[in-house]
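Worked problem 6 (solution included).
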Amino acid sequence: MLILVVPVNREFYIHGDVGVHQDVGQSYWDDTVNILNDHFKSGDYFKGMKVAVQDIGEKLSQYFPASPDDADEIDNSIMYDN
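Solution. The predicted structure is:
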């Protein structure tokens, strides 16, 4: 799952892999785009990202529940580039 925000171009990109997409379907991604659009249009980027990421986490946990022995495969830090 990837959310890429390009503020200078006023664009964002959401990518869920094939397995995730098969489980949640296109309408879910459309709803997520609408969440981001609504908040971004009003200039509330932080809240838009927060709401979208929380919603995605809740949705994906239905299909991919965490188990006690799970380990992160990649770094979860937020990257900034100036």
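Discussion: The longest strand covers residues 2-6.
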